[in-house]
Amino acid sequence: MRQLIDTVWQRRGTSWIWDEEALNKVCKASEAWSLRQFVQAVGKWPEQLPSNNGVTLVVAGLEGCLDLLSPDEAEIWLDEAVKSTILSFQDEYAGEASLIFWIPSAHGRLKVQSTTDSVTWVCGAPNQGRQIDFGRILWGEANILVVDSSLEARHGQIVLASLDAEVTVKRLSFHQNILFLLPENDDYAPIDTSSYSDVKICGVVIKSIRRFY
Q1: pTM, whole model, 2 decimals?
Q2: Are 169 and 56 in contact (CB under 8 A)?
Q3: Which parts of 9-105 fold into alpha helices (H)?
Q4: Please, what is the Cα angle at 104 between 28 and 62, to 5 degrees?
Q5: How far apart are CA 59 and CA 56, in angstroms?
Q6: Does 171 reside within a domain?
Q7: pLDDT digits (tens, 9 = 90+) for 82-108
Q8: Dihedral sign computed on CA atoms, order 63, 64, 70, 74
Q9: Closest CA to 8 of 134, 190, 158
């Protein structure tokens, strides 16, 4: 297996995608875990994860749980259940696995404030108009990649890519009609994608957030 991990894909990293096309580029729909499966796996994580040759886990259902709770209840649940499970996952796999949340409705409900790095979730009915502060609750000790799969990837942008079913995050580059993926870390060599049989650009990374409290 080719080594594709670099410093952009941090030990406590989490990615978020929000449409079915992007999901299909990362894993089969049948491979995605429910949020219940994810939370219940603490302390008994499998040696092999469902996707990308055992190194990727896609979790679905977060927005459905949030819509069942009041904003105050959701904040407590995110802090006590979801955040601790994310950190347990990253501790278990020590940076050798990818955790991706599939949130189909996030394109209109996950709001990123570029000037402050704040990320909020816009509540649905019956709490329409209220917001949950994802950044404050979930992302202490975390490096979060926010990926927009609806954007057309362009030269020079950082993208989430799948190479022969292995996921990586690199900077997109075109040279003499060849697509290259460039690491941010000089210790890693550029990847010539012409040597792969299945190359998919899953989305553009629009924000990488790291916070400590």
Answers
A1: 0.61
A2: no
A3: 20-26, 35-40, 62-68, 71-77, 83-93
A4: 90
A5: 10
A6: yes
A7: 988 988 998 888 777 888 888 888 778
A8: negative
A9: 158
The candidate with the shortest Cα–Cα distance to 143, out of 208, 90, 75, 207, is 208
Report the domain count for the chain: 1
CA dist., res. 120 & res. 131, Å (int):
6
Determine the residue type at 213.
Y
Rounded distance between C-alpha atoms, residue 165 and residue 40, angstroms: 26
Residue 190, token pair as written in the block = 């550029």
- For residue 67, the domain's CATH number is 2.10.109.10
Q: How far apart are CA 76 and CA 55, in angstroms?
A: 30
DSSP secondary structure of 107-122: HHHEEEETTTTEEEEE
Closest CA to 38 of 105, 112, 102, 96: 102
